[in-house]
Amino acid sequence: MIDVSLKGVRCRAAQEILDIEGTVSASTEGTIIYELEGEGGQLVNVHWDDGSRSLVSSEEIVITDPVTWQ
């Protein structure tokens, strides 16, 4: 199921991330598009500031925006 509750929240790569389209450097910033529950845990689709998009593990990013739950 797709969860869009964090859509638009800013994040950054906590480490270097290897992706099919290339490498996302550590500390690269981006915006969350949606979250997805996967077999291995929570996956997050991120639109990085360099224009690329990646589906990454929630453990590979750090939320940089303050999040207020409603």
Explain what this protein looks like in three dimensions.
- This protein is an all-beta fold and about 70 residues long.
- The protein has a single domain (about 1-65), classed as SH3 type barrels, CATH 2.30.30.
- Helices cover about 0% and strands about 55% of the residues.
- The chain contains no helices and eight strands.
- It has strands at about 1-5, 10-15, 15-20, 20-25, 30-40, 40-50, 55, 60-65.
- The strands form two sheets. Strands 1, 2, 5, 6, 7 and 8 form a six-stranded antiparallel beta sheet that branches. A two-stranded antiparallel sheet has the order 3-4.
- A hairpin with a 2-residue loop joins strand 5 and strand 6.
- The model has no long low-confidence stretch (mean pLDDT about 90).
Question: How is this fold's topology laid out?
Answer:
Layout: E1 2-3, E2 10-13, E3 17-19, E4 22-24, E5 29-38, E6 41-48, E7 53-57, E8 61-63
Antiparallel strand pairs: 1-5, 2-5, 2-8, 3-4, 5-6, 6-7
Q: What labels would you give this structure?
A:
70 residues; mainly beta; SH3 type barrels; 8 strands
